[in-house]
Amino acid sequence: MIQRFLPLIVTSAVLVVGFLLCAAQFPNFASLRVVGNLLTDNAFLGITAVGMTFVILSGGIDLSVGAVIGFTTVLLAVLIEQAGWHPAAAFAAALAVSTGFGAAMGLVIHVFRMPPFIVTLAGMFIARGMGFVLTTDSIPVNHPLYGVLNDVALRFDGGGRLSLPAMLMLAVFALAVVLAHWTRFGANLYALGGNRQSAELMGVPVGRTTVLVYALSGGLAGLAGIVFSLYTGAGYSLAATGVELDTITAVVIGGTQLTGGYGYVAGTFVGVLIQGLIQTYITFDGSLSSWWTKIVIGALLFIFILLQKGLLAVWTGRGGETAEA
Amino acid sequence: MSRNRLISAAMAALFIGFGGSGAADAAGDKLVVGFSQIGSESGWRAAETKTAKAEAEKRGIDLKISDAQQKQENQIKAVRSFVAQGVDAIFIAPVVATGWDSVLKEAKEAKIPVVLLDRQIETKDPSLYMTAVTSDTVHEGRVAGEWLAKQTGGKCPVVELQGTVGSSPAINRKKGFDEVVAKNPGMKIIRTQSGDFTRAKGKEVMESFIKAENGGKGICAVYAHNDDMAVGAIQAIKEAGLKPGKDILVVSIDGVPDIFKAMAEGEANATVELTPNMAGPAYDALIAYKKDGKEPPKWIQTQSALFTPDTAKAEYERRKDAY
Q1: What is the pLDDT of residues A89-130, one digit of tens each?
Q2: What percent of chain B is modeled with pLDDT above 90?
Q3: How many angstroms away from the CA of B166 is the closest CA of chain A?
Q4: What does the pLDDT look like over A147-183, one tens digit per residue?
């Protein structure tokens, strides 16, 4: 049993050790404020990464999420500021559009048997382009509800706060754990990612699951877009560029296999926090180039992929032995 | 699953256990300033960072720099980290004008003064920052435009390389230049597109301009929102078989060493200087504020001087080490 959880344990250990090292070096690091910041600042990344985890578990990939976030922020700004919509209506519209966008990509992937990489790459260009068509400027959102929502937070001593985006992210992760491990949809997902053909033979509704998982990823990217819009209080078509790669990284560092069928949502959460931790460390240090974030993340990614590969080899080796014996 | 729960419980205990400690200030009496820099997209930006470091050293200030790699979310994260760290002041060179209210509110609640460097922000609550040290970017565009109008007798079809879409220098440098164009009926902006303040993009966009304008025959001048894009454009003009500085005039803004070099070689015609020493006046304002609580004016303006090829060589020698 322990091997099943090994990637998750290693990832969590990296996070804890990393946090302790940071805390040892900077006295202000080990505070609720830093922990709260980690959750708030990475909320949009975490929410997107949940969708990405599901997509990768199903054996696919979704490169469109960053562009969908950018598009959503622009759509919200245009609807609220220029068309005079109430933010709640705009949020609903944004979620509907992003979910529909994801579902459409899922449909294309399933019906035409197209590689998800290509379809979602096209989706990325389309979403980014649509944002620019709406507006090339960065539009501030001045609706009073934005101010109110940004002030919603559980406050702790020493300036720590659990903001609305952070709470949303935690809720999304909690729901995602339930969805992945205790529902039919979750079981179908793992089956589909493990082996498409045998899943089909087992009677897994492959088409429906594929469409649903991309719809879910699109919808969560839309939700992340709403969080991002609150976070910056503006719509900007260049927002969240490259986030798709950050989320894939978080998912892989979190122990999910890029080939699908194996992994945990909880691992993704830890993966997101590790990225945030490295970034925070470099800001605290203040003299390192911030590009070290990328180098460290790259190295971690590499190590984790090797680890997965190694574990896989060990398991299959063992499996063979037992079969012979 | 239980192992999972165990780990998360251990982590929670860890966070809470450490929560109380951590108020001690490691740096002692030295002023600590956190500087959220946009990135290093241009030579000017690199010089600003370098000057900020040098000026901090001169005044015995401990400067922490965070490079945001052109992303606002990274800047917001950096500002939050600076607040968490308890620095004495935060400098921000904001990548876009909007979206700063909520994080600046946190800085204000923590009583940390914020100084904006070289770019303004859009906010309804100006008390969120102490002061902004910037040049008048509209004026820069105007100076560049006026020079070009005078040089060409007010008759000139211009192509424009804009800065990063939505950034305040791109908006304002366009605005100032457009004012001059509006006053001169013979001047016209025939094509305009963003080159993202980078050399590579400047070159790429200029190539497409030249192709679209009949091999560059219809273009009298290129106006670039920064020198780096102009340097890229010069390259594109040369590759198209034309003479930059003669067949197509080149005017840009910033005053980085490379443009002085290009001017000395006759390949560029004018630049409007944007001094990279933004942090110096900001430190002085901050020190005065910390000493007697004297609030600086809301806007500290730097100069915008025009330079032409006759002084280019000397200016290049003077600058090449600062960058």
Answers
A1: 999 999 999 999 999 999 999 999 999 999 999 999 999 999
A2: 70
A3: 5
A4: 889 888 888 877 788 999 999 999 999 999 999 999 9
- Residue A37: CA count within 13 A, CB half-sphere: 34
Residue at B218 is within a domain: yes
Residue A6 corresponds to which tokens in the numbers above? 């090994």
Determine the average pLDDT of the residues in B185-203: 94
Share of chain A above pLDDT 70, in %: 96
Residue A80 per-residue DSSP state: I
Is B13 contained in some domain? no
Q: State chain B's mean pLDDT as an integer.
A: 88
Inter-chain CB proximity A28 and B11 less than 8 Å: no
**Distance between A215 CA and the closest CA of chain B, angstroms:** 26
The CA-atom distances, in angstroms, between A79 and each of A95, A125, A266 are 13, 22, 35
Which among A41, A136, A228 has the least Cβ separation from residue B77?
Answer: A41
What's the token pair of residue B274?
A: 């944007």
Strand (E) or helix (H) holding B270: strand B270-273
Alpha-carbon dihedral sign for residues A189, A190, A195, A197:
negative
Whether B16 maps to a domain, the answer reads: no
CA quadruple A219, A223, A224, A229: dihedral positive or negative? positive
Domain match, B174 and B312 both: yes
Same domain, B183 and B285: no
The pLDDT of residue A318 is: 62
Kindly state whether residue B18 falls inside one of the protein's structural domains. no
| Cα separations in angstroms, A136 against A133, A237, A253, B206 | 7, 7, 35, 20
**Model confidence pLDDT, tens digit, residues A42-64:** 999 999 999 999 999 999 999 99
B78 touches chain A (CB under 8 A): yes
Q: Which domains does chain A have, with CATH numbers?
A: 2-18+26-314 (1.10.3470)
Q: Are residues B314 and B165 in the same domain?
A: yes
The encoded tokens of residue A303 equal 């190590």
Contacts of B26 in chain A (CB under 8 A): 26-27
Taking each helix axis from N to C end, the angle separating A184-194 and A206-232, rounded to the nearest 10 degrees, works out to 110
Question: What CATH number does the domain containing B40 carry?
Answer: 3.40.50.2300
Of A30, A159, A231, the CB nearest to B18: A30
- For residue A256, which phi and psi values (nearest 5 degrees)? -85, 135
Amino acid of residue A64:
S
Structural domain that includes position B124: 29-135+276-302
Chain B residues with CB inside 8 Å of A20's CB? 14
Reported in sequence order, the residue ranges of chain A that DSSP labels E, i.e. its strands, are 139-140, 153-155, 161-163, 234-235
